[in-house]
Amino acid sequence: MPITNQEFRNALATFASGVTVVTAAAADGKLYGLTVSAFCSVSLDPPLVLICIEKTARCHEAFKESGKIVVNVLAEDQRHVSERFATQMDDKFEGIEYSLNDAGTPVLEGAATVLECAVRESLDGGDHTIFILEVEDTEVGISRPLLYYGGNYRTLGA
Length: 158
Description:
Blueprint: H1 5-12, E1 17-18, E2 20-25, E3 31-36, E4 39-43, E5 48-54, H2 60-66, E6 68-73, H3 79-85, E7 98-100, E8 106-108, E9 113-125, E10 128-140, E11 147-149, E12 152-154
Antiparallel strand pairs: 1-11, 2-3, 2-6, 4-5, 5-10, 6-9, 7-8, 9-10, 11-12
């Protein structure tokens, strides 16, 4: 007998993960960002990571067509950033400090780590698209990461 969506959610809630905001710029210059917890490393050689974005997300097509995506691993003091980019508001970048990289993709200020990536492949993943990204540049800060576990934000202990 198959499990329910809630049973699956409950099981996955026992896995602690970092919190990322992925960003992209559309061809018309409009900026997009989305809080994503479905992120992991894939390969060291070449350096690949993956993210998963729900197909019904308003920004899905922009990410699919952008060619360049930045993965901003949020610092422990950036819960407000995660919450903002998890909303449906039109201008998620208003009041958020960021700069644009050489590709015109937003890079969030204060992130624990930034991975500047090229979209290498997109795959069907049920109700999500799995984006395989090749990491082209990194910026590792000194901040500790924001975590998500059991349906709540967490931080690392001392």
